[in-house]
């Protein structure tokens, strides 16, 4: 860890503070023209690119790669916070973001900061879901809050879990017996290769199937709601 104290005992700005100041200077009048013109919307593509580069660094990069790519993602957060701080109607900054995140994490971990108990990872996940459901009480569907623009495989994993919660799937289908990711990877690649060889779009096919699963989930929820109303009447 770096010691930011000067010999005389005075504290120097932390590296994070200096980075925040760098972002502010670049976006201020007299700074960088490109930075000053950016918006939340114009930066989306860069956030996606930096996030994917971070994934690469995590999976196959060095220590230096990981530091660099974490820094690039952090820079995106600081960039958006600075934009918000100077946008009428938004008027929040990095401190507001940090406060909201801290309060969210404290609230989602009552087994650490409160009186609830959760000794295993599975119990923690169940507790997290309970707390989240209470926080998001306005949500009426298990699909609420799922970003449908997620990569299709991640979206499939998420929707299958929600389908089980909605009672659409009692258990996950096991069409092929695979037990490790080393076995799964070549199988997925072979499926994509087969699709390509037959002139099929594997991405579109999976997203089409996911839309069908989404419709099934919503129909199951609607039926459950109708049944509940019939029971009350």
TrEMBL record:
CDD domains: NTP-PPase_MazG_Nterm. GO terms for molecular function: nucleoside triphosphate diphosphatase activity. GO terms for biological process: dATP catabolic process; dGTP catabolic process; dTTP catabolic process; dUTP catabolic process; response to stress; TTP catabolic process; UTP catabolic process. Residues 38-113 form the NTP pyrophosphohydrolase MazG-like domain. InterPro entries: MazG-like_dom (IPR004518), NTP-PPase_MazG-like_N (IPR048015), NTP_PyrPHydrolase_MazG (IPR011551). This is NTP pyrophosphohydrolase MazG-like domain-containing protein. It comes from Arenivirga flava.
């Amino acid at each position: 860890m770096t010691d930011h104290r000067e010999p005389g005992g005075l504290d120097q700005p932390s590296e994070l503070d200096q980075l925040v100041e760098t972002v502010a200077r670049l976006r201020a009048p007299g700074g960088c023209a490109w930075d000053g013109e950016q918006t939340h919307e114009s930066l989306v593509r860069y956030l996606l690119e930096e996030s994917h580069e971070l994934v690469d660094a995590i999976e196959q990069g060095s220590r230096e790669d990981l530091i660099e790519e974490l820094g690039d993602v952090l820079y995106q957060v600081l960039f958006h916070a600075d934009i918000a701080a100077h946008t009428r109607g938004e008027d929040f900054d990095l401190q507001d973001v940090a406060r909201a995140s801290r309060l969210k994490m404290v609230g989602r971990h009552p087994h650490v900061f409160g009186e609830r108990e959760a000794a295993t990872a599975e119990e923690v996940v169940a507790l997290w879901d309970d707390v989240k459901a209470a926080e998001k009480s306005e949500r009426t569907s298990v699909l609420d809050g799922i970003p449908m623009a997620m990569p299709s495989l991640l979206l499939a994993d998420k929707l299958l879990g929600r389908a089980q919660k909605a009672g659409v799937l009692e258990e996950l289908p096991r069409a092929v017996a695979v037990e490790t990711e080393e076995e799964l990877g070549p199988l997925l690649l072979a499926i994509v290769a087969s699709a390509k060889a037959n002139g099929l779009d594997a991405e579109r096919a999976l997203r089409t199937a996911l839309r069908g699963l989404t419709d099934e989930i919503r129909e199951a929820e609607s039926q459950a709601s109708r049944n509940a109303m019939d029971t009350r009447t």
